[in-house]
Specification:
CATH superfamily of the largest domain in chain A: Dehydroquinate synthase-like - alpha domain
Number of helices of chain A: 16
Strand order of the largest sheet of chain A: 1-8-5-4-2-3
Distance between the termini of chain A: 33 Å
Order of helices and strands of chain A: EHEHHEHEHHEEEEHHHHHHHHHH
Radius of gyration of chain A: 20 Å
CATH class of the largest domain in chain A: Mainly Alpha
Number of strands of chain A: 8
Oligomer: homodimer
C-alpha cells in the first residue's frame, strides 16, 4: 500500500426531498449571495431551480441565476459566470444539475479570485490558491464531481478538453435526491453508470500490491452498480435502485476507491479526445475505450483482470489458463455495457476510423512521452487502443 | 434506502513516518498550544510522544503533555485534562494512542468550553455546542475513533460506561502510520480486529432494504479484515497487512458502512456492561456477545445471516434450508474469532454466570423498555443473550 492523504469534507444530504435543504445548507456554509448555475433545459422547466431558489430565499439568501451549461461544459459560459459573480458579489456557487453543471460551477468559483484567464489553471500556467465555496443539487449521477476534487472543462469551441484535480475543488455540500434522477432517460442513465464504473476501474487497474481493502471496496461498488443499473432500465421509477446508483456515483470518484494505490487514467485521457471531437457522452466513450485498453494491456494485466472476472463478474478461475479468465472478465464487462444499451465500438459512437491519427496526435503526453501508470504507453499504444475499439472484433 | 446525512471531514495522513507530519497538520488546523494526550506506557517510552512534540515545535507550536489514559478511559483524568487545558490556554487536543486516548481527548475537548460537569453530556443533561479541535496519531487500530463521531467514557471508577455520538466529535485530522502498530501483541491486534468487525456488523445487521451498495461495502471491509488479520498474526511486521487493517478500522466506523440504513447496536450496549464490570477489552467482549446475539435473533435474521455466510464466509447457500446457511455463517464468524486467538465464551472472558442478572439489570433501555433495532428486545432478551454466550454450547 502506498502512502496517501485522504480528505473528503463534503457534507452529503441524501434522500427524498433533499433539495428542500438547499437554503439551510447554503447558509451553514456561509452563502449569502449565491449564483444558481444550471443547464439549459430540465432543471429550469421542471421547477427545480425555482424550488431551490425559494429554499434559499427562506433563509434570506439572495440568488442570481445563470443557465445554459452544455454537456462537456465550455469556458465561454464560465467567463460569463465569473463576470456575473464579481458584479453581483457572489460568495457561493450552487450547481443545480449534473457533472457538467458542477464542473462549470467549480470553474466559475476558481476564476472569481483570479485576475488572469481561468483557462490558465487548466494549462498549468496558474496554480489554484483560493476558490469560492461550491455546493450542488445533483440531478445526474455520473461524473462524481459532487464529491470529487476534479473538474473538466472544454475550450476552443469544445475541441480542447482538460481536467484538473485540486483539494480546494471538493464541494462543501451536495444535495442528492434520487427522485430527481427518475426522469433521466435510459441511455443517459446508462452512460452515467459507465462513467462511474470507469472511475472505479481507473483506480482498480493498478500495479500496487497490498491493497486488499481498497480492492474489495472497488469490487463491491462495481457489483452494486451491476446489480442496480438493470433495475433502473427495467423501471426508471425504482427509488431504491436510483438511490444505490446515485450514491455509487459519488463513492466511485471521491477516491475512497483509490487511496494507497497507483491509478491509471490512460483510458480517460484517450476518451477526452473522443468526446471533444464528436461531442459524445463521456460515459459512452468510456464504455468503448476501457475494454479496448484492457485488451491492449491484457498480457500485463492477467492477474488483475482475472481477479476482476472472478470477484466482480462471478467467472470461475481457469487454473490452467488464467488469461482465459481475464479475457472472460473483459467480455463480461463489454456484455454488461451492451445489456444496458451502451455502444461498445467506435462506429456505434459515430467516430470514424480515419480520425484515429488526428485524435492520437492530439493527446497530451504526461511524462516520457507516455500516458497511464499500469502499463505506460505512447502514441503507438493509443493508436492501437483506438483500433481495438473499432467494431468487427470479438467483444 | 433511508434518507441520510454523511459528513466525514477528517483529513487522513496515512503511511510510513506519517507522525512526522503532526506539526504541519496541527498548524493547518489552527493549533498553537496543543495538549498532547497519551496512555501510560509505550507511547512515551518508545519516544513517539517526544517525536510528535518535536514535530510540533518545528512549527512553533507549544505542547503540554498529559499521559495516564487507561483502557476504558475514565472521566477523572478528563477532569484533569480540562483543568490543565484551561490553565494552559490549549487550543487543540492531540491524542497519541488508540481509541481510549482519542476518546479521552474528545472528552477533554468537549469539557473545556462547558462550565458544568463534562459527564452531563453523557447522561443527556447537556447538549454539545462547541468543542476544541481534536487530532490524533493513531497507534492501535480498533475503535475507529480517529474518524468517527463517537466517544465512549467511563465513570464511577469504571463501573459506568456511556457512549455519545455528535458531528462535532469528528476529529480534524488523523495520522496513521501502520509501522507504529507493529509492536502490538497478537492478542491486542485480534481484539482490535473484533472491534472493527463489530462496527461493521452492527451496521450490517439491519432490516433496511435497497442498501445493496452499503451491503457490498460492509462485506468488502469484512472480507479484507478476514484476509489480512491472520497475516499479521503470522508476521507482526507485515506492513501491507498492518496497513489494510489500520485503514479498515477507520472505514468500519466512519459510517461509510452505515449510511441509509437502520443500525442495530444492541450488542454494543450489552458488551459495555461486560467490559465495565470485568475491565476486559471491548473487542474481546464483542467476539463473545455478537455471535450470541446473532443466534438469539436467528429466526428473524435468516436472510441477513445467510447473506453474510455466502458473501463474506464463502458458504454455499442451502436452498432447501437457508437457516442452515445462516447458522454456518455464525459458526464461521466464531471460528474466525477463535483462529486469531479471541475468547468466544463468557467464561473465557473471566465473566461469571452469577453476574448475569446484575449486568442485565444495569443496561439502560433506549425506548419502550427495549434495545436494538434489528429485533428489539428487553431484559429477557439480554439475559438470554448472556446465557447463549456461556460456554458448553455449539459454536
Amino acid at each position: 500500500m502506498l502512502d496517501f492523504e485522504f480528505f473528503s469534507p463534503t457534507t452529503f444530504y441524501f434522500g427524498r426531498k433533499a433539495e428542500e435543504k438547499a437554503g439551510r445548507a447554503a447558509k451553514k456554509f456561509g452563502g449569502t449571495r449565491v449564483l444558481i448555475h444550471y443547464g439549459s433545459n430540465t432543471a429550469k422547466k421542471s421547477g427545480l431551480v425555482d424550488r431551490v431558489r425559494a429554499s434559499l430565499e427562506t433563509e434570506g439568501i439572495y440568488g442570481v441565476e445563470l443557465g445554459g451549461v452544455v454537456p462537456n461544459p465550455r469556458v465561454d459560459l464560465v467567463y460569463q459566470g465569473i463576470e456575473l459573480s464579481r458584479k453581483e458579489k457572489i460568495d457561493m456557487v450552487l450547481a443545480v444539475g449534473g457533472g457538467s453543471v458542477i464542473d462549470s460551477s467549480k470553474a466559475i468559483a476558481m476564476g472569481v479570485f483570479y485576475e488572469g484567464d481561468v483557462w490558465d489553471y487548466f494549462t498549468g500556467k496558474a496554480l489554484l490558491k483560493k476558490i469560492l465555496p461550491v455546493g450542488s443539487v445533483l440531478t445526474i449521477p455520473a461524473a462524481g464531481s459532487e464529491g470529487s476534487w476534479g473538474v473538466v472543462l472544454s475550450n476552443d469551441n469544445g475541441r480542447k478538453k482538460r481536467a484538473l484535480n485540486h483539494p480546494l475543488l471538493r464541494p462543501v455540500f451536495a444535495i442528492m435526491n434520487p427522485e430527481l434522477t427518475m426522469s433521466l432517460p435510459p441511455y443517459q442513465t446508462a452512460v452515467g453508470v459507465a462513467d462511474m464504473m470507469a472511475h472505479v476501474l481507473e483506480r482498480y487497474i493498478s500495479n500496487s500490491t497490498d491493497v486488499e481493502l481498497t480492492d474489495r471496496i472497488c469490487e463491491g461498488v462495481l457489483k452494486a452498480m451491476i446489480h442496480e443499473a438493470p433495475r433502473i432500465i427495467a423501471d426508471p421509477n425504482d427509488y431504491g435502485a436510483r438511490a444505490n446508483i446515485m450514491w455509487a456515483g459519488c463513492l466511485a470518484h471521491n477516491n475512497i476507491c483509490g487511496v494507497g494505490r497507483e491509478q491509471d487514467w490512460a483510458s480517460h485521457r484517450i476518451e477526452l479526445e473522443l468526446s471533444a471531437l464528436y461531442d459524445v457522452a463521456h460515459g459512452a466513450g468510456m464504455a468503448v475505450i476501457l475494454p479496448a485498453f484492457m485488451r491492449y494491456s491484457l498480457k500485463h494485466g492477467v492477474n488483475r483482470y482475472a481477479q476482476l472476472a472472478v470477484r466482480v463478474f462471478d467467472c470461475d478461475y481457469d487454473f490452467e489458463n488464467p488469461e482465459r479468465t481475464a479475457i472472460q472478465g473483459i467480455e463480461r464487462l463489454t456484455s454488461f455495457f451492451r445489456s444496458i444499451g451502451l455502444p461498445t465500438t467506435l462506429q456505434e459512437l459515430g467516430a470514424r476510423e480515419e480520425d484515429i491519427p488526428y485524435m492520437t496526435k492530439n493527446i497530451q503526453m504526461i511524462s516520457n512521452n507516455q500516458i497511464g501508470n499500469f502499463q505506460p504507453f505512447g502514441y503507438e499504444g493509443i493508436e492501437a487502443i483506438f483500433r481495438l475499439a473499432l467494431g468487427g472484433r470479438v467483444a
